[in-house]
Protein 1
Amino acid sequence: METVLVFQHVDTYASRLRLEGLNAFAKEAGWTIQTYDSTVTPEEFKGIMEFWSPLGVMLCPNDGASEFDASNCDPGNTVLLDCFAPNGLERFASVITDSYEVSELAARELLGAKCASYGFVPWPVTKTWSENRRQNFSRILSKRGLKVSEFKPSKEGLDISDFQRELMPWLKSLPKPCGILAANDRVGAGVINVCRLANFMVPFDCAVVGVDDYSEVCEGCNPALSSVALDFRRSGFRAGEMLDGLVRGRLDDRPLESIPPLGFVRRNSSRVFLRTDSHALRASEFIRAKALGPLHPHDVLALFPCSRRLAEIRFREATGRSIGDEIRAVRIAHAKKLLENPYQRLDAVAAECGYESDTTFRRVFKEETGCTLRDWQRHIRT
């Protein structure tokens, strides 16, 4: 079997999904994937190449920084994956995330909230992907005559406490309600935590959007963080296709391909409530946390300090949906998330989404989407 070497750290959400996508293509191509997730010196790299004599190399050089040095690689059999660096790397075939589309989806969501001001919070250390998102977000809003305020920490690499300590006065300075795009979900989670410390109600005083759709981070926020979902699996799969074309002589140039995001995942951090109601927000968060289990509407009604009838009215007036509809919406959204994985077993989706009956779930899913589970799973990958 032909061997492909992959140099990337695998301790992040994005890198794991990229590797899933690449592995999917490798199975089709009959490749063996050998991963190196620690820094290698030029001498070590040379020894690795001599030992394996690989068909090709996949490199994630982290903004062109020192972790993995592309200068040691042959453009004839190397593909760069999610690398935004200059310095001669244009000689290589590359697959990157479409930063403009990411910013466009985020801007569209925050514009819908009709905020009085808009801001961007970068990654604590300067990264090209973060700067690209800031520039595109500012460009998109400037076309509508709106200005984006950028949070600028006092120095590079602040620890989380100092970063958030400096973030608080900046957030307080923005006219409310404000709309914030965070560089990614981890930054967005920090913004929500600072808002809570500053006694700002999210999303009423401050709407927050992240990037990546890292579910464990997004759902761990209170309220849950809205995010632009990136198609990391597709990036990995497409990088495999590109490498195959490169080594088989089917690519005449060194293409740069941008992978568009999967879409926008709206959670409560940017949701437009029809009226400010902290109990309705709390109830909506409770549904997000419990909907994938045996949740019943009367469990949610108990959270309101009023009669069940009035609680149902307040929830509908604030959200535009009944409690039962809200539960169903969360379950269907989770089903769609599961179906992004091409290896997801269809007979297991119902139980993972809180449905006791597979038949009932499939009926509800088709009513909501117009598709069967299998058709949706095929559609999301095309």
Protein 2
Amino acid sequence: MKTTSIALIAISVLTLLALLGVFRNMKSGFGPFNLKVYGITLVMGIAAILTLTDLPSDKTAPVFGLLGAIAGYLFGLKKEKS
């Protein structure tokens, strides 16, 4: 196996473990804070996996733009006032 394949598998496993850990520690469901943590963990894992793939940059650039938009939305979420 190439080192890139090993790194892809390792990042995928770490991302899944992080998502499972976040999901397990949620006590009040998908509130704004939990959604931020879960979403950012997922976006960072996908970005790390895409970085290690052999896809050309003209194919991955739009995906990184979309991931950036999702991350920006998640960071911009505010707690609702009651």
Protein 3
Amino acid sequence: MENFASSTTRLNGRVISFDEAAGLGLAADETGSVHRFHCIAIADGTRTISVGASVTFSLVVRHGDTEATDVAYADADAQR
């Protein structure tokens, strides 16, 4: 059983890095806090996302570490 808790609050932010080979990225929220995410947390299922993209996301705590989840482009019609 996985040990996690999630927030229902959506944050606005921007993807500041994404390593497609590793499937790992960083998103900064509007306060400047940086949150890690894994490619499986990208909401549209593509497992890739553009650096610099405006996104929304929720936070989840897994094993004592906070990560971004349900990472989605802020504009549903955004060019990828």
